[in-house]
């Protein structure tokens, strides 16, 4: 069953679909899909069997596309691995792959299905787009033959790429993006030689495309926004939530806020893998998001977005992330520090002892300040302020500077940084800031039950403070300023399973 969430206040501009003049707003859709997985097997299945499984998934996506189009959506994003899942070796995924041409060939697979060989998946996706007059974004696998004339060609004579494709409302292939930053377990795919910056223009703004782990990167993620000035980013992902700092909806919405772009994030849905959390995020607010650890169903979301956010009066100003923190003296009142791990990184923590207070904690070059006031501080809950400045080296390498305030898992300080699901203590006031050496800082607040804090309750000030604004008490699980220092990254974030020589 496909359920739909579409905020009531959104006006439907269905009449504009056939209109090619510039639109000030558009309706975006994302679909969180509970992927039907193939059986795990080392031995490759036949192409027919692979197609059968892919068609089962596309049947579900088709219902979502139709429903979205009926509601006036201009574009719909479906998840990474959304058509065949992720349980593969290099050999066993091969029957699922198609040769995907570059968009420059100007191809509508629905009209001309045999032009590039056997491509039934591209044909079907193209027809979905064309028949419903909607842009369709999907993630499939590309295969590219190579031979000894290319010294990097793998021994089996082909490259296999994790690939996003976009078909426009006439069914034309308008974008093809090969995922650059593969995540460690993706042994079925090859790293492309170069990072591609893939964009396309529409009557409702300029779009960029990337995939899942790419969101940690400068190339292509930041480059698409800073260098190519896209208005909106299309983001298929297969993201498993890792509290406290790496949950899908909090992290993705923070990225959209900090980068000041629209982000259309479609996650796969599999609760036993903790995969859930999709949404439509504008620079100034979360338009809609979905987080569901209870059911095994998919979910369609729609929201109206501004086509060109920088032209809007609501466009948030740029933030100087260290201005406030550098202007104040560190708070020092008999605080003791202790270490704690978050996702394999050793933070320096200090406990927040009173109902209200000022604390500073430093790690290397980063000092984090918190000023806070709690109501109803519970004796059985402990909160701590943590700082981390260093290279993360597990499942990828990337340089971080992070300030975080979080609830410890138990009252034992050694549990600070471990995942925790609920909090009862409420914060009436808070202001978190840090002496960041980067202008890329992603601000997030997660409340008890993994819910996002509504924007009316907090703000990011121009001098880099993440602070309360309404005085409404919030049951904070974790808040963080998650900074990325790209200059200190190694050349590639992902560590490939096999090194191409
Ligand atoms: C997986 O295997 C079971 C039992 O052999 C079979 O019934 C089922 O159809 C298979 N599923 C897929 C997706 O091939
Ligand atoms: C294989 O190599 C030959 C030259 O040795 C070249 O002409 C041909 O295009 C290559 N094929 C592929 C798929 O790269
Ligand atoms: C979720 O993913 C796991 C691991 O790949 C798989 O074993 C399980 O069957 C999936 N659950 C569903 C409901 O598909
Ligand atoms: C925190 O510091 C501010 C000034 O920096 C001061 O006004 C306030 O009283 C302090 N709060 C506590 C609880 O110490």
Set down the secondary structure blueprint.
Elements: E1 3-5, E2 25-32, H1 47-70, E3 75-77, H2 120-132, E4 135-145, E5 158-167, E6 173-178, E7 199-202, E8 205-209, H3 218-226, E9 232-237, H4 248-259, E10 262-267, E11 278-281, E12 286-290, E13 299-306, H5 323-327, E14 337-342, E15 345-351, E16 356-363, E17 366-375, E18 383-392, E19 398-407, E20 426-434, E21 441-447, E22 451-452, E23 458-460, E24 466-468, E25 476-484
Parallel strand pairs: 1-13, 2-3, 3-4, 8-9, 9-10
Antiparallel strand pairs: 2-13, 4-5, 5-6, 7-8, 10-11, 11-12, 14-15, 15-18, 16-17, 17-20, 18-19, 19-25, 20-24, 21-22, 21-25, 23-24
Question: What key phrases describe this protein's structure?
Answer:
501 residues, mainly beta, Nitrilase/N-carbamoyl-D-aminoacid amidohydrolase, seven-stranded antiparallel beta sheet, disordered C terminus, binds 2-acetamido-2-deoxy-beta-D-glucopyranose, Vascular non-inflammatory molecule 3, hydrolase, glycoprotein
Task: Describe the structure in brief.
By secondary structure, the chain is mostly beta strands. It contains 5 helices and 25 strands. Residues 356-358, 371 line the site of one 2-acetamido-2-deoxy-beta-D-glucopyranose.
